């Protein structure tokens, strides 16, 4: 791009977005020039997704102003953003698999006369757009569901172009692509920017940012901590240190520094493999030990947990609890052997949304209160009340619908589910235990998890937030692209070192 | 009188937005009440109140339009008898729907069970074996659809649609499309409708027993609680260690079991087994369950509501017959009732706690 620093295409000033319990954006500034690739960097929870949703018109900011092409705009909805000339390509491509390429490109603004679509017209325009993107070989009539991931992405971009977009936001566009496809993506991006289109590019791979980016803005805790850094010359160390060192203090309970080597082994995982997700993963968890997995979304970390728990069936390898193998791919067997899990997506994987707090707590341990299937509701409720008190679930009302609780209290409900019969719980598996939980409740959860480990329960934990893994776990496994690349004591690691390991691309 | 069919092809609509916080299924409501602590009043109870009010209104309409015929004990008994067959089927259907499925095959399976139980061969073993046969055939059909759905991973709508068609065909083939009379030596079956205890035919007691057993199973056992879990969030149930597939299989087996019992009732009422029994009963049963407040998407529902739904439908039929009105008007009225019931429930779900 030119050195004359042209008039910016997009200026965002002091954007604030407040969610219940979380200030996702705390006064973000961003300016993007025409024809540049502007990279957004930041850890999970730094506010990247919220920011691009504001740009896409999906979220309304609580404060701040957006100036686009020299005029203040209000992006009241996705259509308004499109009309203004801002297109967003999400990580999960929002294409309709059952429609053709051309139909997808013009979805929502079909070429039609009196409601009758002009298919020939649409197909001609689609062919032209695809040609501009260097993919004239994609037939406009092909059903989108039958295209490979890279092809779908091209269709998404063609859709953006069909709106005459002047700014295209790409959320981790390379995540679903193979290596040579990434090269093609970059070629397309260069053609777009050559024609004056600006691109906001989000990626975790620093290597890519060096290759394609012009300038970098780093987000941390809802603020831009650095804006407009040169993408090619800023050192990795500087970027990593900008992304870390947060303002929010993590309150971790004191570690009890006792040697744990002599404790009995609860979990042993032997060369577990799930093709396409992870390869040859082996590790152990001892009684009272907290083992943390650090890795990016898509690194295979959640799949490892789910496979250990029996929610997925591995192709190879074994899982042993107390030295005896657990039947693979059977969550019931895992629970009977003393495992419990708080999954990543609390709402879709853990909670019974129609149920009360009590029903949600007792669901996994019902047989404990039953003789020949007949429930003793008195004993059930007594135990539920005991757990509500022990975990300080608020409000302490077993009859309350679980969906009315805050995120932190919902997470406590999920934990309480596995604590009803503490004698039986051997291993607690936690995937993102503090997602959607505000800072105060986090500290409580940390103390709770540490307390459980203190009682001899083994804990296996995944978190996107590196400080959380380092602060809670005794031992850390770093996972990258389906492989454990490092195992070590948490006290020997710091955030920058772990980030370096999990983000290290092939070239860095 | 039992030949009156009470519904047309009105397909009930599922309430779409059902995730209201202040609304629960029966088991959870009762747990709430016990829990107390100022929990918001369950909409479940209010809704039952609405159903009861609808019943009262229908009775008032009966008293006004046909004062000398409606308020007789004979008519009241008639309504209960008329409700028994669909009622028993609806209990099984309630379980399936709360568990996140649907069973379209109930009417056909009942017909098949009635035909199988009245074949010459079966009848030669006497009434007890006939009844056993009906129950076994019903449960067996339920196990087949259940296997297709749980282990064969078929969509419930399609698997039970296949059973609906196939069971009806098998019933026709077994009976050669002829109505099979129950032989005089097996009139113990018929006695279920003719013998009265405290003024009520025995089959009304069967209906009541199935309803009570269903209520207990849903609200007082691990099976019932897991049914809510499986229907409310299948993935969460699986991750809580519940064997979702086995549970799904059992739900359809239970529905088939209820169809077997319904077959005994229809045999008692008509003294026949026929491949034409139970035509479109699946729609009546589903409509009754939906009117009763069970979510078509699963996870929420009550047996009490379903029974009230069945009684409302039966009462409408009864009123229209007493007043000598057209069957067509009766169908229209039922369609309207379904829509109103679902609209009212949706409003109930949206109102704040």
TrEMBL record, chain A:
Topological relation to the membrane, as annotated: Peripheral membrane protein
Under InterPro entries, the record lists: AAA+_ATPase (IPR003593), ABC_carbohydrate_import_ATPase (IPR050107), ABC_transporter-like_ATP-bd (IPR003439), ABC_transporter-like_CS (IPR017871), P-loop_NTPase (IPR027417)
| Molecular-function GO terms, alphabetical | ATP binding; ATP hydrolysis activity
Q: Which GO terms describe its cellular component?
A: plasma membrane
Q: Which Pfam families match?
A: ABC_tran (PF00005)
Which keywords fit this entry according to its UniProt record? ATP-binding, Cell membrane, Membrane, Nucleotide-binding, Repeat, Translocase, Transport
Answer whether the UniProt record assigns the keyword Cell cycle to this protein: no
Indicate where this protein is primarily found: membrane
Q: This protein's superkingdom?
A: Bacteria
Looking at the record, the residues that make up the ABC transporter domain are 10-246, 261-506
> What does the UniProt entry say about where the protein is found?
Cell membrane
Q: What is this protein called?
A: Sugar ABC transporter ATP-binding protein
């Amino acid at each position: 791009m030119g050195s004359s620093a042209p008039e910016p295409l997009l200026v965002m000033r002091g954007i604030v977005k407040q969610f219940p319990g979380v200030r996702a954006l705390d006064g973000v500034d961003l300016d993007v020039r025409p024809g540049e690739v502007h990279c957004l960097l930041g850890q999970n929870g730094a506010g990247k997704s919220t920011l691009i949703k504001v740009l896409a018109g999906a979220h309304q900011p609580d404060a701040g102003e957006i100036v686009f092409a020299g005029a203040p705009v209000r992006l009241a909805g996705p259509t308004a953003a499109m009309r203004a000339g801002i297109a967003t390509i999400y990580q999960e491509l929002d294409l309709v698999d059952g429609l053709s390429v051309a139909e997808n490109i013009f979805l929502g603004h079909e070429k039609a006369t009196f409601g009758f679509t002009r298919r020939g017209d649409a197909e001609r325009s689609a062919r032209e757009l695809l040609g501009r993107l260097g993919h004239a070989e994609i037939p406009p009539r092909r059903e989108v569901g039958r295209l490979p991931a890279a092809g779908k992405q091209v269709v998404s971009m063609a859709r953006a172009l069909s709106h005459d977009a002047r700014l295209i936001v790409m959320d981790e566009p390379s995540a679903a692509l193979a290596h040579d496809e990434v090269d093609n993506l970059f070629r397309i991006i260069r053609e777009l920017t050559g024609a004056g289109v600006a691109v906001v590019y989000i990626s975790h791979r620093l290597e890519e940012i060096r290759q394609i980016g012009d300038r970098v803005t780093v987000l941390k805790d809802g603020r831009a901590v650095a804006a407009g850094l040169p993408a090619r010359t800023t050192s990795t160390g500087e970027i990593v240190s900008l992304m870390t060192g947060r303002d929010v203090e993590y309150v971790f309970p004191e570690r009890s520094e006792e040697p744990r080597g002599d404790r009995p082994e609860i979990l042993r995982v032997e060369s577990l493999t799930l093709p396409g997700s992870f390869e040859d993963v082996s590790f152990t968890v001892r009684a009272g030990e907290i083992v943390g997995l650090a890795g990016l979304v898509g690194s295979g970390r959640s799949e490892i947990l789910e496979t250990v728990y029996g929610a997925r069936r591995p192709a190879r390898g074994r899982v042993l609890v107390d030295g005896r193998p657990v039947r693979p791919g059977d969550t019931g067997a895992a629970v009977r052997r003393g495992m419990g899990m708080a999954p990543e997506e609390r709402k879709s994987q853990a909670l019974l949304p129609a149920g009360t707090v009590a029903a949600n707590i007792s669901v996994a341990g019902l047989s404990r209160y039953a003789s020949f299937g007949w429930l003793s509701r008195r004993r059930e409720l007594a135990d539920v009340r005991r757990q509500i008190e022990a975990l300080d679930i608020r409000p302490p009302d077993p009859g309350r619908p679980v969906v009315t609780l805050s995120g932190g209290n919902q997470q406590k409900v999920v934990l309480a589910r596995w604590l009803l019969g503490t004698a039986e719980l051997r291993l607690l598996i936690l995937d993102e235990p503090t997602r959607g939980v505000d800072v105060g409740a986090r500290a409580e959860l940390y103390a709770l998890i540490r307390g459980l480990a203190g009682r001899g329960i083994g804990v296996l934990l995944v978190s996107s937030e590196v400080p959380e893994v380092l602060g809670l776990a005794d031992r850390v496994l770093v996972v990258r692209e389906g492989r454990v690349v490092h195992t070590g004591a948490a006290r020997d690691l710091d955030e920058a070192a772990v980030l370096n390991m999990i983000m290290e691309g092939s070239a860095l | 009188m039992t030949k009156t069919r009470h519904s047309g092809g009105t397909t009930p609509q599922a309430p779409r937005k059902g995730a209201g916080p202040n609304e629960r299924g029966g088991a959870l409501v009762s747990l709430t009440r016990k829990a107390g602590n100022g929990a918001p009043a369950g909409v479940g109870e209010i809704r039952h109140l609405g159903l009861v009010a609808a019943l009262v209104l229908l009775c008032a309409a009966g008293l006004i339009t046909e004062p000398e015929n409606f308020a007789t004990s004979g008519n009241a008994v008639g309504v209960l008898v008329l409700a028994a067959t669909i009622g028993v089927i609806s209990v099984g259907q309630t379980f399936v729907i709360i568990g996140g499925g649907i069973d379209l095959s109930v009417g056909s399976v009942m017909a098949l069970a009635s035909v199988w139980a009245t074949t010459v061969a079966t009848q030669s073993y006497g009434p007890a074996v006939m009844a056993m046969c009906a129950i076994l055939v019903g449960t067996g059909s339920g196990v087949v659809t259940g296997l297709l759905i749980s282990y064969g991973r078929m969509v419930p709508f399609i698997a039970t649609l296949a059973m609906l068609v196939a069971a009806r065909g098998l019933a026709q083939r077994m009976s050669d499309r002829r109505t099979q009379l129950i032989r005089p030596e097996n009139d113990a079956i018929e006695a279920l409708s003719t013998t009265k205890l405290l003024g009520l035919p025995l089959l009304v007691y069967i209906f009541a027993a199935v309803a009570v057993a269903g209520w207990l199973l849903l609200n007082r056992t691990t099976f019932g609680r897991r049914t809510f879990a499986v229907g409310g969030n299948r993935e969460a149930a699986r991750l809580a260690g519940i064997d979702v597939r086995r549970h799904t299989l059992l739900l359809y087996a239970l529905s088939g079991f209820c169809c077997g019992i319904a077959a005994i009732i229809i045999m008692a009422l008509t003294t026949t087994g026929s491949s034409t029994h139970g035509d479109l009963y699946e729609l009546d049963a589903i409509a009754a369950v939906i009117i009763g407040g069970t979510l078509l998407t699963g996870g929420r529902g009550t047996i009490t509501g379903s029974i009230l739904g069945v009684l409302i439908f039966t009462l409408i039929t009864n009123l229209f017959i007493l007043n000598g009105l057209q069957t067509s008007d009766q169908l229209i009225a039922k369609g309207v009732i379904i829509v109103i019931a679902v609209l009212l429930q949706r409003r109930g779900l949206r109102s704040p706690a």
